[in-house]
TrEMBL record:
<keyword id="KW-0029">Amino-acid transport</keyword>
<keyword id="KW-0812">Transmembrane</keyword>
<feature type="transmembrane region" description="Helical">
    <location>
        <begin position="269"/>
        <end position="289"/>
    </location>
</feature>
<feature type="transmembrane region" description="Helical">
    <location>
        <begin position="327"/>
        <end position="346"/>
    </location>
</feature>
<feature type="transmembrane region" description="Helical">
    <location>
        <begin position="49"/>
        <end position="66"/>
    </location>
</feature>
<keyword id="KW-0813">Transport</keyword>
<keyword id="KW-0472">Membrane</keyword>
<feature type="transmembrane region" description="Helical">
    <location>
        <begin position="295"/>
        <end position="315"/>
    </location>
</feature>
<feature type="transmembrane region" description="Helical">
    <location>
        <begin position="72"/>
        <end position="96"/>
    </location>
</feature>
<feature type="transmembrane region" description="Helical">
    <location>
        <begin position="201"/>
        <end position="222"/>
    </location>
</feature>
<feature type="transmembrane region" description="Helical">
    <location>
        <begin position="162"/>
        <end position="181"/>
    </location>
</feature>
<feature type="domain" description="Amino acid transporter transmembrane">
    <location>
        <begin position="2"/>
        <end position="349"/>
    </location>
</feature>
<protein>
    <recommendedName>
        <fullName>Amino acid transporter transmembrane domain-containing protein</fullName>
    </recommendedName>
</protein>
<dbReference type="GO" id="GO:0006865">
    <property type="term" value="P:amino acid transport"/>
</dbReference>
<feature type="transmembrane region" description="Helical">
    <location>
        <begin position="12"/>
        <end position="29"/>
    </location>
</feature>
<dbReference type="InterPro" id="IPR013057">
    <property type="entry name" value="AA_transpt_TM"/>
</dbReference>
<dbReference type="GO" id="GO:0016020">
    <property type="term" value="C:membrane"/>
</dbReference>
Amino acid sequence: MLCGCAQYVNLWGTLVGYTITASASMIAVKRVNCFHREGYGAGDCGASGSTYMVVFGLFQLLLSQLPSLHNIAWLSVVAVATSFGYSFISLGLCAAKWASHGDVRGTLAGASVDAPREKEFNVLLALGNMAFSYTFADVLIEIQDTLRSPPAENKTMKRASFYGLSMTTVFYLLLGCTGYAAFGNDAPGNILTGFAFYEPFWLVDLANICVIVHLIGAYQVFAQPIFARLESYVACQWPDAKFINATYYVRLPGRWWPATTVAVAPLKLVLRTIIIMFTTLVAMLLPFFNAVLGLIGALGFWPLSVYFPVSMHVARLGIRRGEPRWWSLQAMSFVCFLISIAASIGSVQDIVHNLKAAAPFKTVN
């Protein structure tokens, strides 16, 4: 029950984070093109983050009416391809910036702050952002449930997790170290949207467009389990309600495309619309990129990425309480639990700090 609640809260929180990130990339595309035309520092190159969040939400509303996760497999493939695209572009831009000045910038102590307490909170926030890098655990079981056998689903997922984790860790370390070497203590929270690069403008645009496309697909991968769970719960509560169980078929005439019949379920239409609208509203009220991502990562890291798999491993192998292996696993779990608590504190403090200075419905990168 604990892991189930954590999973769905974190899935929804990830949707909020994706909405904020997508809008930031949309703003970056507009700003980079404006600076390219008008010159760096032009005063009329701003944009409303709320407007782009609404656009992103409307697009997700359209995609959410697809029947199931199986039917958006093509979208998942596109999302993976674009994730490689913006990752390699970001790495290349940072490496070029580093090569342009030739020295390793930054210090071991990191960016300077006015008070030691603020420094401590920034360190905790950074832990949350690192934890967000491993939110795969939220959808691992959901994805495994869609796999076909043979081979066995758990074997396929184990292999995918191993390669995915290895690639993610190596690439994030490369990008993090290269970015810090390039910018030092001035490194922005988001390398593509935080005033780090404006030229070549077409390459920065391409990277941000890849981010947007990736998040369009990733949003649906994380949202589908929420939709399925809530729709199943409502259907069980009112099994005889016509509105909940009815499905209507609408035939769409074709002119430039073949005529097709579309199934419309009132429950799916209403419930998914409410969820996406509420998610978009929360993103507009808390548009703080690093703070929100840090909080999401902190809340989901220990229960889903550590506690749940460790508990299942202990149960499956029959590791008895008090054995050396049991103590080592519990010690690791406890340390990760403390990290999650600490990162949550840092993220909440940053959100509170930003709320004091920022106006609602204004994106903060």
